[in-house]
Specification:
With about 425 residues, the protein is of the alpha+beta class. It is about 30% helix and about 35% strand. Helix 3 runs antiparallel to helix 4 and helix 12 packs parallel to helix 13.
């Protein structure tokens, strides 16, 4: 790193290389040596820059720095904006306990409570994304989706209002200036994650073909070079935060460097899929879970929640909210859970959709398949009611819910009553 940001390289090229380390620069942080260390997300790089006094390159040169950054912006490499800068301190408490069974059958739970605390610096636009996803996480925790997480909280403090320069995704991590052979050249690069002896991720670069520094003036030529870089096809670059590497992906996701291995082995669900986290969907999932729990406890049957069945011919998928395979009574029950936030009756299309699921499953099973519409309203519209009364395989059930359920995350179904 000392050869990438140094007086030997000069201010102009050191600024470019610093953007390759960090992706963005906050001008106000370049004015203050203490804030300068906060600017660098990678703690290893920040420490090295502090040790080799790289801050001296930028000290008292703010006007010249902005001129150089504006020059890179005019060439089309950077985005410039004015933003508020925030310090975010977050606190997470998790309890990953697990059952332990001894050879003689003694069973207990074991585990430790872990507290994760950290501080990050975010621009206003980054803060907006952070707060949006934090709300999603908190809603999911409140709904019981992540029962091992005891607490997730954060505080924010505004540090300054500053010009922010960010290198565009296409150029990040793709090219660096270096004088490794005695002459300053621009090198095509590939970011590498080379763990340190203590196991922390550390960002370095693999240097490939070199070009004269003047080529940076020709953005069209730079674009042609980058279009041939294979690793840029599905990645933006690599960021390190507190010894943990994150790939920035082209779909606006920062993926933990090791998460791909984790997902391939353990098949972690995509918790942030849009279908999972809005207010209505979270409560609807609580309703489905609670209905299944009630049916299981009341009738002593095994209930599968959100079972997916697929038509191998048409590839159409049906999701069964509450699925019961009742061997004792030789029947299959298909529960359709409809949580209403307003006093709106069940309509004809909804009961027809349930009928489609019943008919599909009946083709595949010798047991009789029956349907249950389970909802917190006590009426069907006239067409839906006539349809249910006409068929002998659909029942209509009313669900009583906990008081003030719309404003709680710990509510449940307290009773089910058959209407027709």
């Amino acid at each position: 790193m000392s050869t990438l940001i140094s007086k030997e390289i000069g201010l102009k090229y050191s600024l470019w290389n610093l953007l390759m380390c960090n992706k963005l620069l906050i001008v106000e942080f370049l004015k203050n040596e203490n804030l300068f260390e906060l600017l660098i997300k990678d703690s290893n790089i920040a420490y090295e820059l502090k040790q080799n006094k790289s801050y001296e390159i930028f000290k008292n040169k703010i006007n010249e720095i902005q001129e150089q950054l504006d020059y890179f912006t005019e060439l089309g490499y950077l985005l410039k904006r004015k933003e508020s800068i925030f310090s975010i301190t977050y606190d997470i408490v998790i309890y990953p306990y697990t059952p332990v069974i001894s050879p003689i059958g003694f069973t207990t739970f074991t585990g430790e409570i872990y507290t994760l605390s950290d501080n990050i610096i975010l621009t206003g636009s980054e803060l907006s994304k952070f707060e949006k996803i934090s709300t999603i996480i908190c809603n999911q925790i409140d709904s019981g989706r992540h029962s091992h997480i005891r607490r997730f909280t954060y505080t924010k403090d505004q540090l300054s209002y500053s010009d922010v320069y960010e290198i565009k995704d296409n150029y990040f991590d793709a090219m660096l200036f270096s004088n490794m052979d005695g002459n300053i050249k621009l090198y095509e690069t590939e970011p590498l994650n080379l763990p340190t002896k203590d196991g922390k991720d550390e960002k370095q670069w693999g240097f490939k073909k070199s070009y004269p520094v003047e080529i940076i003036e020709n953005k069209q030529k730079i674009d042609e070079i980058i279009s041939t870089i294979s690793w840029k096809k599905n990645k933006i670059g690599l960021l390190i935060k507190n010894g943990v590497g994150y790939w920035l992906l082209s779909n606006n996701i920062a993926e933990n460097f090791h998460d791909r291995i984790t997902q391939e082995i353990h098949k972690l669900p995509q918790f942030f899929e849009k279908a999972l986290f809005n207010y209505h969907t979270v409560h609807s999932r609580i309703f489905e879970d609670s209905v299944s729990t009630y049916l299981s406890n009341q009738y002593n049957v095994n209930v599968i929640t959100r079972k997916i069945v697929k038509n191998s011919i048409t590839n159409e998928q049906y999701e069964i909210d509450s699925y019961i395979h009742d061997n004792k009574n030789q029947k299959i029950i298909v529960g359709e859970c409809k949580l209403r936030f307003e006093d709106k009756p069940i309509n004809y299309d909804e009961v027809v959709r349930l009928k489609e699921k019943i008919e599909f499953l009946q083709q595949k099973n010798s047991y009789k398949v029956v349907g249950m519409i389970i909802t917190n309203v006590d009426k069907l519209d006239s067409d839906a009611e006539n349809f249910v009364l006409e068929k002998n395989d659909i029942e209509f059930w009313h669900a009583s819910l906990s008081h003030n359920w719309k404003n709680r995350s710990d509510w449940k179904v307290t009773n089910l009553t058959q209407i027709c």
